[in-house]
Amino acid sequence: HTLLFHSAVPVASLFGEIYPPRNFRRLPKTAFHQKLDPLAFNLQWTVMSEMTSRTADIMRVSSHREVYEPCDDSFALVDALLADQTNLINHNPKLCMEIGCGSGYVITSLILLLKEKLPNVHYLATDTNPIAARVTNETLQAHGVSAEVVCTDIASCLEERLAGLVDVMVVNPPYVPTPEYEVGMEGIASAWAGGENGRSVIDRVLPVVDRLLSEKGWFYLVTLTSNYPSEICLVMRKRGYASRIVVQRSTEEENLIILKFWRDKDEEGVDKETSSESFMKQFSRSLSSFMEKQWR
Amino acid sequence: MRLIVHNMLTCNIKGVVNKFPLRIEAEKVIKKDVDFNPDFLRHMLAKIEWKALVDGARSMGYTELPDHAPALESDEPFLKKFHHALLELNLEEGSLVCQETGRKFPVEKGVPNMLLHEDEV
């Protein structure tokens, strides 16, 4: 395996962290075996070095035509977790959860990046698509790790008993703006159809997450600029959460923003809590400069 | 599905009052070893509904759990049994049955399917 970057341009996140992008075009899996030619630098793909098995191996992620395959959004979320890896380890979570696990790429990566330093964490994953739940289990097994997988709508059968117990919550929701009738349709479309402003499912997830998170809970959420992330942050602010952007990435199709939330009273360990007014100023400034760069 | 998650599952059918615990009908149970971690077990003890755990373990063929958790949490033989029941018994195939309505939620390849039909929401 060799480590190659498509572009050496680092992406600066809101609070000055530099994180190199790992642009990763979706190719048929057979292409990986064919194209391992070190001279083919114009090919836009990267392969993780053998030394760092901190994330799931794309070649060992199970698949099915009705299940969302890992794509830029999945990789951006995992990059956010990687960027926060030290904080996560120091945070010492007991229970981590993913809502909408799809292929299992993200939950598997989360397990892999925590298990060396924190071998006794428990993991839970849900998906509304029963095939995705099965595929997630296959992906977990292929990597020699395990999590409890439940097929349910968001966390509908778990909310009561699990309230206040989840220390890390990770969600890559169906965020694509679509007509409302496309939301929640059976099969793979439920993985992306997000209704008006792509917020239908996100808006249902937020109160559930609030209920499930422990006092020290952290919540990572994938959004597009089209989802009005600043508004999401305001909604969460009213529920008592501070937030920041961990990764922002623009691809050909999407402007992705990976948000992190934590309860206000808690010290995050890296950034002090900012007042909602100054936060909104910084957020808007960063968002406009991010948007500006896209126009150029 | 292991008993740690079974102990967190409720029946979410509209109008149901007796939503926890779900009764287990086991068809295939597999045992998988898990590292023994007493700290985690003590942390979980307060959150676990004990009777649901005992009944669940019995349905999966494990009858060694005492009817009540002992007062002395540090009792290691007890913790070992608790550990085994909570984390090492895997329901691969079977059903979870709502005690009130009798509705069966299938467990296939270790995954419980808790999706509700339209009229149950």
Task: Explain what this protein looks like in three dimensions.
The complex is a heterodimer of chains A (296) and B (121). Chain A has 296 residues and is α/β, with parallel strands linked by helices. In chain A, strand 3, helix 4 (105-114) and strand 4 (122-127) form a beta-alpha-beta unit. In chain A, helix 2 (72-83) runs parallel beside helix 4 (105-114). Chain A has a single domain, classed as Vaccinia Virus protein VP39 (Rossmann fold, 3-Layer(aba) Sandwich), CATH 3.40.50.150. Chain A has helices spanning 29-34, 72-83, 85-91, 105-114, 130-142, 159-162, 200-212, 229-238, 276-295; strands spanning 11-12, 18-19, 95-99, 122-127, 148-151, 166-171, 213-224, 241-250, 255-263. Chain B is an alpha+beta fold. Chain B has one domain: N-terminal domain of TfIIb (Single Sheet), CATH 2.20.25. In chain B, strand 2 and strand 3 form a beta hairpin. The two termini of chain B are 24 Å apart.
List keywords for this structure.
heterodimer, A: 296 residues, alpha/beta, 7-stranded mixed sheet, two-stranded antiparallel ribbon, globular, disordered N terminus, B: 121 residues, alpha+beta, Multifunctional methyltransferase subunit TRM112-like protein (chain B)
